[in-house]
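Can you please make up a protein's amino acid sequence together with its fold in token form to help me picture the idea?
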Amino acid sequence: MIKYKKGYEFQLVEDYYTQVDITGYEVMTDFIFLSFTGMLNVTAFYAWDGPSPPAIKTKNFMEGSLVHDVLYQLMRMDLLPQKCREYADDRLKADCIRDGMSKFRAWYVHAGVSFGAKAAANPKNKRKIFTAP
């Protein structure tokens, strides 16, 4: 029997590093390390679902969606406080603009996650585990 979760579409093929403005926490999971100083390391083979529908999955959305999904996952796992959600949403917008997304589309993306993604960061909203056979 296997146990698995649905919803993952993308997978890193090499480690990813970025500085985030979330400091004072040291978090380590199988694929994520956040240092006390805010250095975020996401290791190869980390899987995420990318931009959520109805968003269009474009190249200028991918890095932002990775960091956003990682931070939301850490909040969902109760490893970061919910107060980090605003930063995660703002960071998504900034990353998308930096990567070439229009400011209007980035504003629209930000509005969508700010108003519609609260449950995705909630520790009570863990992905369902399936089994087969």
Q: What stands out?
A: The chain has one domain: 2-122.
